[in-house]
Specification:
Blueprint lengths: L2 H11 L4 H13 L6 H11 L6 H14 L3 H14 L4 H13 L3 H15 L7 H6 L8 H18 L5
Helix pairs in contact: 1-2, 2-3, 3-4, 4-5, 4-6, 5-6, 6-7, 6-9
């Protein structure tokens, strides 16, 4: 929460700071201001459309749509994230959850398998292990509840076991 005023100050000093926009977007997500995230990140995309981290920008917007149960929009943005940064397992796991919530079980299983392969460990072996990952499912209780009803529910549908 303390970071929000710092990023806002950085933006007041330089309203074209792509990283400040992106980081402020993450802070807004973590603290429950979901409606404020996309405008910030979309501005970052407009300012730096060929940014090496553009996939992370797409991922952030896709995650917000997923948490808001806007599954079609989530899939669109998360597919862009996968295309821009194909080696990020978290991007694949969110896409797996979105596909599963949309009823596309084969695509969901494929993305979950790829997340597991890319992670190189057992992070994506179970819901319990994923939830135990340090710092992974952050934010205020409202956001944690949204992750439960969307992301984790989707991973369960994609075939991730509880234990």
């Amino acid at each position: 929460m303390e970071a929000i005023p710092e990023y806002e100050t950085a933006l007041a000093l330089n309203h074209n700071s792509v990283m400040a926009l992106h980081c402020l977007g993450w802070c807004k997500l973590c603290f429950g201001s979901l409606d404020e995230v996309a405008p910030l990140v979309e501005q970052a995309i407009r300012l730096s459309p060929r940014d090496p981290l553009i996939g992370s920008f797409y991922f952030l917007i896709g995650t917000v749509h997923l948490l808001q149960s806007q599954t079609d929009e989530a899939v669109d943005w998360l597919e862009k994230a996968r295309g821009a940064l194909p080696g990020i397992p978290t991007h694949r796991s969110c896409l797996a959850a979105a596909y599963a919530l949309r009823g596309e079980s084969e695509l969901a299983a494929t993305e979950l398998a790829e997340a597991r392969r890319l992670s190189g460990g057992d992070l994506f072996s179970s819901i319990t292990r994923l939830k135990a990952h340090p710092g992974a499912w952050w934010g205020v209780p409202k956001i944690r509840a949204l992750f439960e009803t969307t992301f984790f529910a989707g991973l369960r549908k994609a075939g991730m076991p509880e234990e």
